[in-house]
Each structure stands twice: as structure tokens, then as C-alpha cells.
Amino acid sequence: MGVGDEVRVMVLAGGLSYERDVSLRSGRRVLDALRAVGVTAEMRDADVSLLPALQEDPPDAVVIALHGATGEDGSLRGVLDLCGVPYVGCDAQAARMAWDKPSAKSMLREADIPTPDWVALPHDRFSELGAVAVLDRIVNRLGLPLMVKPAQGGSGLGAAVVREDAALPAAMVGCFAYDSTALVERYVPGADVAVSIVDLGAGPQALPAVEIVPRDGVYDYAARYTAGLTTWHAPARLDEEVAARVAETALAAHKALGLRDLSRVDLIVAEDGSPQVLGINVSPGLTETSLLPLAVQAAGMDLGRILATLVGRAVARSREG
After folding, report:
1. Whole-structure pTM over 0.70, yes or no?
2. Residue 33 CA: distances (Å) to CA of 38, 234, 261
């Protein structure tokens, strides 16, 4: 199926997560990109009207532009499977694994893919065992500085860098506001990069890495979506050998988690040039400041044509299955 073939695409955006506003912006970007290459597309929220619409007039395929749990934890993908509606992106099981950062990091470790040392701490254990004692053990084991972030979630919500013991309790409280489990990770200084992966039919390929330089040093929610707070370099300012290593590591992570179609792998490139994977996103942001569109542009490709090709692959999968 090529660009412009008669297919009807439903773009799902919005939802009820903390990332609703980002999702709506991503959805509009997807809608415009698909329409620009001649694909018939509509945007719909993931609300109570969705299932009746899928049953009464199912689209040929769905593009999921939902962020947060709804779009990334596998649940919506499972519902689409039940409805027999094909969609772009990985299946429900792979999404569940990638969404839970401790689970994803464990899979990376099993595949010998480097990722910073970590401990996952549920709020209940944190309270039962005594906050002070637990935090002391974390610092003793992982050292400082630390990165604290929700075990599930995206867009930098609830994330904080902790450089001294006294700041750790507040960081944990801030994290628990977004998730019941905190991921406390050894902070690795270096260059923040993101590698977008797409598979247009010849196997997964890594697009040029995008380097992220937040003005205040932390790529949190404000830095991601507020104009002027972050500078991006696409392609990243890496020498050829390091760039190749980063791309290879990102591809290995995509494959290790059983992903398909597209993903974004976030990495830190340490001062010695070695990359470590921080996380994998199965529903990458597609807003005007998001990283996948920057990578597409750096590769000299067109976002609408990529999305249309992925839609065609999703439809073909459903016909083959």
C-alpha cells in the first residue's frame, strides 16, 4: 500500500493522562502530516465514544498519538486488538514492558545493553521501611548525584536530579505525585541524545541522533515544551565513531524489547563516548518541539510519508494475519 491509497486513518489523541495537552499537539501534527500526503484522516479523543465509533465505522488503521498510560502501557492496543483494528506501533505486550522503566531496564541488562544502575522503590515500601533509612541505603549504594523519576510516565513529569542528600526526600515526594513507584537511577553526566527508530519495510533503521541541551541542565517537562528553554542539535554533535555506537545501541534496545514500526530511545553519552540507555518510548511525541520530527528532518525525510508507509504496513499486517 503506498502513499495516497484509499485508506481511512483515525488519529487517537488526548486522553486523560498528565500528558493530554502534549498528546493533542502531537495528534494535530500527525493529522496535518498525513493529510499533506493525501491520506484521509480524522482525529478522535480516547473517550467513551471511541468503542462505539470503532464498531460502527472502523477505520482502516489507527495512529496512536496518545502519551502517558493510555497510549503507552499497552491497554489501548489490547482494546484495538479486540476490535480487530490495526494500528501503527508495537503490540500490547511489548508496550507494557517498555512503559514500565524498571522492567525495560531489566530486559536491557539481560541483553547486555548498558543502562545506569538503579533501584525501583514503591511508595508503600518507602513508608513501611522508614524513609530516612531507605534513602541512606540508596545513596550508599548508588552514590550522588541521582536521577529520580516515576517508574511509569513520560515528558519529564516528576523527574529531578538530586546532587546532595538533603534534596532527595523532596525529589521522592515530587515523584510519588505522578506514580506509586519511584525509579532512582545513578546520574551519568554526559550528552543527552535521542535516537528515533523507524521500520519502513527493510528492517529497523536509526535516524540521526538529536542532542538535547536544556538551559538549566535538566530535560524536564518545562524544558521539553517551553520555547527557549532547550536547544536541540540535529544531528547530534558526536564524532562519527560515537554516533555509530549510539545508533547501534538504540537499535539493539528497540529489538531487545520486541518493538516494531517506530520508537524513540533516550540515551546518555558519557564523557568517554560510551552510550547508556535511559528509556524507550513506544509513542514518541510529535509536537513542534518533539525529537522524532527533528530526526526525520535531519535525515532529509518527510514525516507524512513515513507515517503513511507505517499505516500501510499496519494494514498489510492485519490482512496477513
Report:
1. yes
2. 9, 20, 17
